[in-house]
Specification:
- Helix content is 24%, strand content 18%.
- By secondary structure, the protein is α/β, with parallel strands linked by helices.
- It is globular and about 105 Å long.
- It comes from Danaus chrysippus.
Length: 797
């Protein structure tokens, strides 16, 4: 019955597809200069007056017209479709010249009555100007995109006949705007005018846009605002003033914006902000202040206080040193605070007193040396705390005691030497804790009976069921029993000084007894770079983990121990060795007897022996490097990069230009994760816009962090881009170089050589270990990702 139903569904799908194909074919125009194709959409390849024109049509949805190297075109020569298409959701003209008739006349000629969205983009210099008559007859138009056209002027009446417009994008032009330009657009809700020259904007420019909700003035060369600049846009919800070189703001500039929810201010030059600048923005939810070009040093008192709807604050890379204790006072709805990449040295114990709903707190990459014991006492709902890359030396027992909901704690790259015992006793969550790259040893000095003694106590003795406990790159010389038996999934002890992996275990019989108290078996253990002794206790301990508990040991250092040492710890090995010696002795006697009675036998044995022991040569690894770059950077790559790479010995260079199609960008994004290949990415603003124009900054950075066998060359070619600048500044120094580095070719040669070596090692027949290593990398990558809101909108056209 199920099979019969599946057959019916399959037949229905095929019938529908066939009908759609037939319907599409019927839409094909009978034009002598066009070839019609496509299945789900009509695809036309036309040659009109020697010009190549590509037209794609999906009935009732879209019409796309793309011109190739066309400087002039008679639009009335375009084909007319067999049936009128009535209403289309979207019409796009790509790289086509400015028409000498209206867009409405062009669409009517092609069989389109009206459209709701019009996109006109020409990356080449326009040969004409847009004026009012071009938009005559498009009174139903609600969306208009005129970005990346090089437009320098728009007449005041250009939008007079499209007063139903709700969305307008004129980004990446060179327009000087008059205060009358937007006057007809009373229904406008979204306005994108970034990347224009707006140095002399009138204070009445937006006063007629009473319904405007989203306004982007990103990188528009604005250096100051009048205090009444936003008067009239009372319902504005999102405002972007990034990358404008602003050094101050009037205290009342945001006063009219009572509905403002999201404010973005990164890449400016603020030395300070007015104290009460947000006092009227009671609906404000999100604030971004990133990559400020001037040190702000100190935030004003109560800057983000008394904002009942404020949820997210990101102030990163702004040179902050002082955070007032009341800066977030009475803003109890905050869920995310990031003060990362600043110069903060101390935090008052009451700084976060009112943030009872805080979920994520990022204080990484600062200069904190200590934490007040009650600084987190109110954060009972906090789930993620990032304190990595500070200078913290000690954590008291009560510092984390109130963090009952904590799931992720990162304290890597600090100067931790001691942690108070039972510091995580109150937490019942399945946490990820990383204390890597510190100076921990868990040895406490105590005085008892006037004698100084060293007591070894693990602060995790009463911490159970962790997803990950990362103690790598510390100073441990012994392991603790609770690490093995408290039910943790992953344990990383690599790069320590541990000699006895069993800790206090002194007898072979104690190995099994210790694990009988275990809550559950762990999954992975990393022991890389530890001087573990080749003794019987360690052999039995590791064997028990692997054989009895099925624990995966990554880079087991005991594998390097002598066979004879290991054999001495196991009776079964001793018996096997005895039998082997006896067999070899008997074989030697037999060979000697045969040689004595047959003089030709030695030659036959020799040839047979050499036949079996002859080593098989391994094929040399094909050393090929793929250079990936934006098609816009091709001249630079072919002139500067390729010739130098070809001088590298035994390396073949494969150049791969990327032209920015959606499929190709997606493939480029996904190919980061393919191994093993060696790739060199010429990472420029052009490459960023070509490959990642529709991908969030969080995913871009995550992809770059996870990429294997890839070297990024950050090259400042193309238009200024704050997202590129941010990625460049936060790049991984191990897998990236700067083009302006005097030693770039020395570093590139080293990276390429190391990359091929790693690829060769990955090709070795140890797939099991490779899979385990990849599992570890996924766990550690999850820990290192810093939660950051999606701000990639600034890099999209």
């Amino acid at each position: 019955m199920i099979s019969s139903m599946n057959n019916k569904i399959f037949c229905l799908i095929m019938t529908s597809l066939f009908a759609n194909v037939i319907g599409t074919r019927m839409m094909c125009p009978s034009h002598p200069n066009c070839i019609c194709g496509g299945t789900l959409a009509v695809e036309l390849d036309c040659n009109i007056d020697g010009h190549k024109i590509k037209i794609n049509l999906h009935p009732s949805i879209y019409l796309n017209i793309k011109c190739e190297n066309v400087t002039s075109l008679d639009y009335k020569t375009l084909p007319r479709y067999a049936y009128n298409m009535s209403i289309l959701k979207s019409v796009t003209f790509k790289d086509c010249p400015v028409p000498n008739i209206s867009f409405h006349e062009i669409l009517s000629h092609m069989g389109v009555e009206k459209t709701m969205s019009l996109i006109f983009q020409n990356s080449h210099k326009l040969s004409g100007f847009l004026n009012r008559r071009h938009f005559t007859g498009l009174q139903d138009l609600t969306k208009l995109l005129l970005s990346v056209n090089g437009i320098t002027h728009l007449p005041d009446n250009v939008f007079s006949d499209i007063n139903n417009l709700t969305w307008l994008n004129i980004r990446f032009n060179n327009i000087n705007l008059s205060d009358q330009l937007f006057k007809p657009l009373e229904k406008l809700e979204t306005l994108e005018i970034s990347h224009n020259h707006l140095t002399n904007m009138s204070s009445n420019l937006f006063s007629h846009l009473s319904l405007l909700r989203r306004l982007s003035l990103w990188q528009s060369n604005i250096t100051w605002f009048s205090k009444d600049f936003f008067t009239g846009v009372n319902v504005l919800e999102e405002l972007d003033l990034s990358s404008n070189g602003l050094n101050e703001l009037p205290v009342s500039i945001f006063k009219p914006l009572g509905k403002l929810k999201k404010l973005t201010l990164f890449s400016n030059k603020f030395s300070t902000l007015p104290k009460n600048i947000f006092s009227n923005n009671l609906e404000l939810e999100t604030v971004f202040i990133l990559n400020n070009d001037v040190k702000m040093v100190e935030l004003p008192s109560s800057l983000f206080g008394n904002l009942p709807n404020l949820k997210q604050i990101y102030i990163q890379n702004s040179g902050l040193e002082i955070i007032p204790s009341n800066v977030f006072k009475n803003s109890s709805s905050l869920t995310n605070i990031s003060l990362a990449y600043n110069d903060i040295k101390t935090l008052h114990e009451s700084t976060f007193n009112d943030q009872i709903n805080l979920l994520e707190l990022d204080l990484s990459h600062n200069q904190l040396k200590s934490l007040e014991s009650t600084i987190f006492s109110s954060l009972v709902r906090l789930e993620s705390l990032n304190l990595c890359y500070n200078s913290i030396e000690e954590i008291s027992g009560s510092t984390f005691s109130s963090l009952l909901s904590l799931i992720y704690l990162n304290m890597e790259h600090n100067n931790l030497k001691t942690i108070s015992s039972y510091i995580f006793t109150n937490n019942k969550q399945r946490m990820i804790i990383s204390l890597a790259y510190n100076k921990l040893h868990f040895e406490n000095k105590e005085i008892e009976n006037n004698d100084l003694s060293v007591v070894q106590v693990s602060p995790f003795a009463f911490t159970y069921n962790l997803k990950m406990l990362n103690l790598s790159h510390n100073n441990f010389d012994t392991a603790y029993e609770d690490w093995w038996i408290n039910g943790h999934d992953h344990l990383d002890l690599s790069f320590n000084s541990i000699q006895n992996i069993g800790g206090q275990t002194e007898h072979l019989n104690d190995v099994g007894l210790s694990f009988k108290k275990a809550r559950k078996s762990m999954k992975y253990v990393w022991l890389t770079n530890n001087p573990i002794l080749c003794n019987c206790i360690n052999f039995h301990f590791i064997d028990y983990l692997q054989e009895k508990l099925s624990v995966k040991i990554i880079n087991n250092p005991l594998e390097n121990c002598s066979f004879w040492v290991r054999t001495g710890c196991y009776k079964r090995y001793a018996l096997s060795l005895t039998l082997l010696i006896c067999s070899l002795t008997l074989s030697a006697i037999g060979i000697l007897i045969c040689v004595t009675f047959n003089q030709h036998l030695p030659d036959r044995l020799k040839h047979k022996f050499l036949y079996y022991i002859k080593p098989k040569a391994l094929a040399n690894l094909n050393k090929t490097i793929t250079v990936k770059y934006s098609e816009q950077d091709e001249e630079f790559v072919l002139k500067e990069i390729i010739p130098e790479l070809k001088e590298h010995k035994k390396v073949e260079v494969n150049a791969q230009a990327i032209n920015g199609t959606d499929d190709e960008s997606l493939n480029c994004f996904l190919n980061i994760f393919e191994v093993p290949k060696m790739s060199l990415v010429i990472f420029t603003p052009n490459y960023l816009m070509t490959v990642y124009s529709h991908i969030s900054i969080k995913k871009i950075r995550g992809a770059m962090m996870k990429s294997k066998n890839t070297v990024y060359v950050f090259t400042d070619i193309g238009p200024e881009n704050s997202i590129y600048a941010y990625l460049k500044e936060q790049r991984d120094l191990r897998t990236s170089v700067l083009w302006n580095d005097p030693k770039i070719w020395h570093k590139l040669t080293t990276e390429i050589t190391d990359g091929f070596y790693k690829i060769k090692m990955k090709l070795a027949p140890y797939e099991g270990n490779l899979q385990l290593l990849n599992n570890r990398e996924r766990v550690l990558a999850d820990m290192l990702v810093t939660n950051t809101s999606d701000i990639i909108a600034h890099s999209q056209v």
